[in-house]
Amino acid sequence: MAAESKPLFHPEVIRRQLRNFVLPASVAESRPRLQHWADLISSGRADQLKETDLLPDFLTDVFVRLLGYTRPAESPACYTLSRETQIVVDGQKADAVLGRFQPDRREYLVALEGKGTRDPLEFPFGGRKMSAVDQCYRYAINLPCDWIIVTSMRETRLYHKGSNQQTYERFDTVRLAGDAGLLKRFVFLLGAARVVPESGGCHFKDLLGSSETVGREITNKFYAFYAALRQTAFARLRAENAAIAPQEILRCSQ
Questions:
Q1: What residues make up the domain containing 127?
Q2: 214 lies in a domain?
Q3: Which of left, alpha, beta for 142 (phi over 0: left; psi -120 to 50: alpha)?
Q4: What is the distance between the alpha carbons of residues 123 and 119, in angstroms, rounded to a whole number?
């Protein structure tokens, strides 16, 4: 049985960030193409086509037009999406890398691996020895970079190299086309303006740190509540059993 997945970032951290986030105007221009992909996938037509026939257009429509990454032809002095980076794992190269690429400097931030719409991503498929997720973790180790995006075009996942493979953010393409809230979350998390900003670092690191802080706060509040509840219950038991030694009440209530 497959292990249950959990989100990479704490939901409360993302909710706080989304309150003041406004979608760029360019997103409205990209939505017809996103709907096109949703229709292609939901109709089953995408399953009949090869990954190599679809993936270049998907990366252009979603990562360039919707999320705002730039390619060498558009911004040769400094671009943020590099295709077919020369990092070989099991005879294969990463489909793309997100980062900041200049003539004299290359900063790798996210390894990106794309597969066909029938690929389950977490299991080997189509005769491969390793899953798409395993493959992209290897790319991230060898580049190196800390973040991983794996997409089957049907769904897109974000992983952290330092976290286990059951912890990730997941976005379903068909749902993205029809759910404005989910689309806002997708663009906020994966948008180029926050992943590869002109100044400062990738926001994934800050989101992960904030998520860990919130997790600790919730845990501490839970244990404080539990301790107070035990004290209240013990006091009530003592009041209602005055003839019994407190040590005996404590022993029986453990």
A1: 11-201
A2: no
A3: alpha
A4: 8
The 10s digit of each residue's pLDDT in 138-163 is 999 988 899 999 999 999 999 999 99
Cβ atoms 79, 72 nearer than 8 A: yes
- As given in the structure block, the two tokens for residue 182 are 């989910």
Place of tokens 């990209």: 30
- Six-digit token string for 79: 């671009």
Nearest to 8 by CA among 176, 215, 197, 246: 215
Name the nearest CA neighbour of 122 among 88, 181, 164: 164
Indicate whether 192 and 224 sit together in one domain: no
- Note the pLDDT tens digit of each residue in 105-151: 999 999 999 999 999 999 999 888 899 999 999 999 988 899 999 99
**83 occurs within a structural domain:** yes
Q: Spell out the residues 6+ positions from residue 196 whose beta carbon is closer than 8 angstroms to its own.
A: 69, 80, 98, 99, 100, 109, 202
Please write the tens of the pLDDT for every residue from 203-251.
999 999 998 887 565 565 555 555 456 666 656 766 777 777 767 666 6
91: left (phi over 0), alpha (psi -120 to 50) or beta: left
More confident residue, 75 or 223: 75
Task: Please indicate, yes or no, whether residues 158 and 248 belong to a single structural domain of this protein.
Answer: no
194: in domain? yes
Contact between 204 and 191 under an 8 Å Cβ cutoff? The reply is no
